[in-house]
Every structure is written in structure tokens, then in C-alpha cells.
Design goal:
Blueprint: H1 6-13, H2 27-33, H3 48-58, E1 70-74, H4 78-86, H5 93-96, E2 99-106, H6 108-117, H7 126-149, E3 153-157, H8 164-171, E4 177-186, H9 200-203, H10 214-228, H11 238-241, H12 249-256, H13 265-271
Antiparallel strand pairs: 1-2, 2-4, 3-4
Length: 284
């Protein structure tokens, strides 16, 4: 068995993945395997030219049918930034990070192009929303990986959708433009830690979807993660769920999911241009 990436894979998954045969030894892949979310930033500005380079990398990501339905709002104005940060006091890094970007799905621009070229069409269906969401998510992740390659740290902020009306007002979002996630960006003030991920046995399916082995795989993952970073003393809402003898990742996330997020987001989207209908077939 090759030793390449053994330490990195153990850091990410807590076990060996059994990479039989030769694999290329690549410094960038090692960096990806060891990536960390950063919420504390050094008092060091990020040059605007560097941010623009990272955004150029972000918009080099794949795009559905080359429609390019993603945009970014770079929140430079301190007043707007503070108003946004005040909505989420539990996340002070929104206001403290040297740079804050909001990646938005932009289903509006494609409609505008149709108007300019005399081919009016509506991009309000589920397909339009879905494609714009994926384009923005791909740009977000590409920006993150590019930033980390250059020594910066990032923290995605999906909680923006929980206060969609206020966020949309601050950012002056028109119809069919919606936030996918914000992104804090800056030079890390501390090393951070590597978040252990589910093993490939839980996330990779061969030929068909098969969850038969999930309980055992998750139990093993819970134990490995607990051994590295235990949360037994931080059980979520014990007054509601009781106190578990063993409190691992799966119990924590199952409890967390009982409090739905994004309440009102679908209604806001419908009020701002989306119907989520099936698209009409093209005329023959």
C-alpha cells in the first residue's frame, strides 16, 4: 500500500483509505486534504488586487451551459457591513473579517440578456433557481480553495438566508437574485483545526445508492471524532432531548436539524420572482 497522503487522510478521516497502487504526490492535494475553516483573522489587510485575483479564480469555475448565473457582492461599505453583522451577533467574524463577500445566485442576468437580444424568456422555474444556486456554490468553493492556496483563511456563512428580508434590503437585491452564502476572508490569526469528515464508505456509492452499512459506518465515525474532539460536555438542548450516555456527531446533527433554518426563504423567493414551476417545453 502506498504511503502517499497517509497522514493527510488520517487527519481528515481519522483512518487509512487504502489507496492501493501509485497515486501522484501533489502539494495542492495535500493542502486541500488539510484545509481548515478560519473564524479568527489577523489584523492584516488583504490587498484589493489579491481579492480581485481570487474573484477571477472564482468565476473561472464550471458553469451550467455557460449561462454564468453567479454574482458576488463585495461588502466594502462599513455601515452596510455593520448592519449585516448586527443581524448575527453570534458570528462576530462577519463584521471582523478583513473582507466579506456574498455569493449570490443570479437568475436575473440571463433574463436581461434575453431582453437585450430580443428573446424574452422567464428564468423563474425550479431549473433556473437550481442552476443559479449551483453556479454560485461552485464559485464560492473555487474562491475558497484559491484563497487557501495563497495562505488566507475562509469561513462560509450560510446563515444569511435565515434573515433573508433584512439581508436583501441591506444588499439591495432585485428579483431573482438571492444569497447562497457569505464568505469571510483574511489571514488566519490561529492555526484552526481540521474537521473530521465521514469516511468514503458513507458518501461514495458504487453503481447504485446503498445505505445498508450506514449505521455501522456512522458509529465508527462518531467514536473516531469523539476521540479527537469530544463534544460530550456540550450536548445540544438537553432540556428538550435529554442527556445521552454517548454524544457524538450524529446525535448532535440530528438534534440540530430539529430546528429548521431558512424559515421564510422559500416564501421570499416566490415573492421575488421565482415560481419553481416545471419549465415549458421548447416549441418544435
Amino acid at each position: 500500500m502506498t504511503e502517499t497522503y497517509r497522514d493527510e487522510l488520517r487527519a481528515r478521516f481519522g483512518l487509512d483509505l487504502g489507496l492501493d497502487g501509485e497515486v501522484p504526490d501533489d502539494a495542492w492535494l495535500r493542502r486541500v486534504l488539510l484545509r481548515r475553516t478560519q473564524r479568527r483573522y489577523a489584523d492584516r489587510p488583504v490587498p484589493e488586487s489579491l481579492v480581485r485575483l481570487l474573484l477571477a479564480a472564482a468565476f473561472s469555475a464550471s458553469s451550467k451551459s455557460d449561462f454564468q448565473q453567479a454574482s458576488v457582492i463585495w461588502l466594502k461599505d462599513r455601515v452596510r457591513r455593520d448592519r449585516l453583522a448586527a443581524l448575527f451577533p453570534d458570528m462576530p467574524w462577519i463584521g471582523a473579517a478583513p473582507v466579506f463577500l456574498v455569493f449570490v445566485g443570479d437568475a436575473r442576468r440571463l433574463e436581461k440578456l434575453g431582453e437585450l437580444r430580443g428573446h424574452r424568456q422567464s428564468n423563474r422555474t425550479l431549473e433556473g433557481f437550481f442552476n443559479a444556486t449551483i453556479d454560485a456554490a461552485l464559485a464560492l468553493q473555487t474562491c475558497t480553495l484559491a484563497a487557501e492556496t495563497l495562505g488566507l483563511g475562509c469561513c462560509p456563512i450560510s446563515v444569511l438566508r435565515n434573515r433573508i428580508a433584512e439581508v436583501a434590503e441591506i444588499l439591495e437585491l432585485p428579483d431573482k437574485v438571492f444569497p447562497v452564502a457569505g464568505l469571510c476572508l483574511g489571514y488566519p490569526a490561529q492555526p484552526g483545526f481540521i474537521s473530521m469528515r465521514l469516511p468514503l464508505d458513507a458518501t461514495v456509492h458504487i453503481d447504485r445508492y446503498d445505505e445498508a452499512g450506514l449505521p455501522a459506518v456512522v458509529d465508527g465515525y462518531d467514536k473516531r471524532r469523539d476521540a479527537r474532539h469530544s463534544i460530550r460536555d456540550r450536548q445540544r438542548a438537553p432540556e428538550r432531548f435529554g442527556t445521552a450516555d454517548f454524544y457524538g456527531w450524529s446525535e448532535d446533527k440530528a438534534r440540530q436539524a430539529m430546528n429548521p433554518e431558512g424559515v421564510g426563504f422559500a416564501a421570499w423567493l416566490r415573492a421575488h420572482g421565482f415560481t419553481f414551476d416545471e419549465p415549458e417545453p421548447a416549441p418544435r
